[in-house]
Amino acid sequence: MNLDFLITPTYSTKTIGIADISVYDNEPPTVSAPTLEVSIPGFDVVSLVFVPQDFNVLNSTLLGITVEGEDPLPDGIYVFRYSVAPAYENFVEKTIMRVDVLQEKFDEAFMKLDMMQCDQSIKRQEKVQLNTIYYFIQGALAAANNCATDQANELYIKADKMLFNFNSKSVCCGNNFITNFT
How confident is the model at residue 38, as a pLDDT? Predict the structure, then answer.
């Protein structure tokens, strides 16, 4: 048995998709106690029943964040551990940085840029700001993928602050370098 899973995009801030891509000894698989433990940023570790050879979709209710309904899942570093009995021998663990809420804010800012009725020099400046924010988001993902958790969180916070400033400013406000970079 070779356990493995794939975290797939659901293009929603409210869900995480996890596909079981394990290779099992038997068809259909006969596994005992398939369990997924999820470490959620800002919450306790949650243990869930994992359905082998299936696409498992997690939301805020399943993860114990909300009692009812689906709220956006928090961004941050998640740790997933899929195990089958005996759990101390048969497991696989993966760490990801989720940035879906931040990406939604970035998309809003990007769409706002194209709809503005400003002069070209201000539009150019705002494109530079969005490119900088995009690089901070990508840097956060790269840092998380390379186990640099502190750097990933710093870059995430910087991008979030810049997006907040970008989205909350009035149209055509000019340079806000001091607000974003100091």
Answer: 97
Structural domains of the chain in order of their starting residue, each with its CATH number: 5-98 (2.60.40), 100-181 (no CATH)
Per-residue model confidence as pLDDT tens digits over 77-101: 999 999 998 767 889 999 999 999 9
SS (H, E, C) 70-107: CCCCCCEEEEEEEEECCCCCEEEEEEEEECHHHHHHHH
Q: Which of 102, 10, 20 is nearest to 60 (CA)?
A: 10
CB 99 within 8 A of CB 143: no
Q: pLDDT confidence of 173, banded at 50, 70, 90?
A: very low
C-alpha triplet 17, 12, 135: angle, nearest 5°: 100
Half-sphere exposure of 81 (CA within 13 A, CB side): 15
- What pTM did the predictor assign? 0.82
Reading the block at residue 88, the tokens are: 């101390």
